[in-house]
Predict the structure of Histone H2B.
Amino acid sequence: MAPKPTAVSKPADIPSASPKIAAKKSRGRLPGVEGKRRKHHKESFSSYIYKVLKQVHPDIGMSSKAMLIMNSFVNDVFERLAGEASRLTRYGKRSTISSREIQTAVRLILPGELSKHAVSEGTKSVTKYTSNVSQKE
């Protein structure tokens, strides 16, 4: 018959969990409220896509699956444009992305006629924004 293993007690000066582990355990929890978790807020372009759809085709709806696909598409185009604009800014040894870098990125990434329309709409939006800002001052 094998002898029973005896329980080894911890010395009093060794903490049971390090501060890093304690901080990790509390991540995502509301302070002072036990057992409650924060809601994860996932940003999307869904409301904007829906508004544009209603401007173009007021009588047509969109399924949730189609909305997910459109949201994925908009995120993809955004990431491509932002990446290209960032590269152009670094090539120019600058630290700020301006409308010029965005416009060049649009010309490089979007094909043909789509690029021309996007540039003209962007120019129109920037002009509208600057006129509104100058009116407020």
